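User: I'm writing a short report section on ligand binding and want a predicted complex to refer to. Could you take this sequence and pyridoxal-5'-phosphate and write out the structure as tokens? A short remark afterwards would be nice.
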Amino acid sequence: MSPGFIARGKGCRVWDLDGNEFIEYGSGLRAVTLGHAFEPVVKAAQNQMVLGSNYNRPAVIEVTCAERMLSLIDADKVKFAKDGSTVTTAAIKLARSFTGRDKVALCGDQPFFSYNDWFMATTPVDAGVFSGDREVGVKFSYNDLPSLERAFADNPGQIACVIMEPSRTVEPNEGYLAAVKEMAHRNGSLLILDEMITGFRYHLNGAQALYGVKPDLAAFGKALANGFSVSALVGRADVMDLGGLYHDAERVFLLSTTHGAESHALAAAIATMDFYASTDVIGVLHQQGARLRSGLEQVVADARAEKFFGCGGRDCNMFFYTKDQDGQPSQTFRTLFMQEMIRHGVLAPSFIVSYAHGDEDIDKTIEAVAKSLRVYMRAIDEGVDRYLTGPSIKPVYRKYN
Ligand SMILES: Cc1ncc(COP(=O)(O)O)c(C=O)c1O
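Assistant: Sure. The structure tokens for the complex follow:
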């Protein structure tokens, strides 16, 4: 049922190889927030491409992009790279160099910070990681200050940094993020906010502005260039400078990568940020998400499916949960729901909207959910296997295929 390959995309729609059209959610793993092939971004990349894409000497567009980034995000310095994993890892390397410590306190309720070993060693998919990395990660729970306090108490003088997303599925308790920063500093460590998802989605100036907490370092990517490969490490000058050329301290080999300054990707990032700054993109993401949420709540109530299906997260970043007949979280029912949505022309691994989701797309989605829930509720009564046309999806963090 699920389209194996996508041939092209425009706005919030994609087409598979057979020409089937789908409304798509969570596009590009949440990177394509303005919609596929968004013209101002594509044009900017095309215009830059003809000037050459990579030079030995620094390109002026790197400075322009850095100035644009720092006009939106409150930080002293920025360094660009190609993906999120490398900038979260670079942030950790800087924090280690700054503090002279090795360990990393990471929020255990948040699923992903990097494909690099320091993080993968903390998951069940740890085959091939360097064994020393298994000693590095110390987990704490979100909105639970005592759990962070314990992490510091159990590892005295060893934790270089706290890394976390500002929020994920739930909002931070009043004063929580400020207290995390204070606790990190009191224990001689740094706060790194991972804004890969929240950046350019929750607030124009980052979730750090929304929640009023300025981290020591922060990592951005995904929506920054509307699907082009650009990520950014930003932060305090005294920490960032360790990765630069103009200091007397020991050098950190930070983010020196061949393709880091690919000029058309930076042009795409500038065009994306310009559009965000001149148009209320964030407002539209929230507004369309809210329209979708209220429609979904209505059809879920109509189907009497509240015990089995629902939505969570901010309007601009909505996920759905699926439960079985016993009220237990179920990947099999998730598969069935997605299968039925595909049957009705919607690819929905989440309900994360883009700027390109218009009212008509949202309303069609709500109709598709209403139809899919009819099958879902029949499967609750009669058993899910008779309705599934293929194998169930599996959790990402599993030891074996
Ligand atoms: C919160 C968070 N941090 C970091 C990453 C890693 O980013 P990338 O896939 O660009 O390496 C992701 C990717 O999904 C993410 O969701």
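A remark for your report: The chain has a mean pLDDT of 96. The longest strand covers residues 159-164.
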